[in-house]
Predict the structure.
Amino acid sequence: MDLVLKLRELRNLRGLSQKDVARRSGVGEKTISSFETGQRIGTMKLSQLARLLAIYGVTEEQFFSRAIEELFDPDAISRRSREEQLIAGLQDLAADARSALLERFELMLDSALTVRVHASGSIRLATPRPSATTHHASAA
């Protein structure tokens, strides 16, 4: 996602007009418009970007990371939330139950990676990934 799109989407996500952002940030409304259309994005000063990001509640680090793109991708949000729920549930288990589930998950993952169905419909065996249990056994 490019800089122009991120700026526009962040403003829209916060429910702000260009006029609102201009008033709060001190950056001119026409300047904001020209940044969001890409006309003057190359002339943006770091101080202007910092003021805009402060209005949007985003740090520079967040803005330039791929994580910011997930804010605009509903599928990424639902995937992340499901994965976070599973991990949280796993962490709440007793150590022996967690270990047993992790072993089963590794087996399922190995199976999924071993058998791959190609677009043509043919099934191909792939090289299985080294598992943690195999690695530990060889280290002993």
Summary: Residues 3-70 form a domain with the 434 Repressor (Amino-terminal Domain) fold (CATH 1.10.260.40). The two ends are 47 Å apart (CA to CA). The first strand starts at residue 115 and ends at 117.
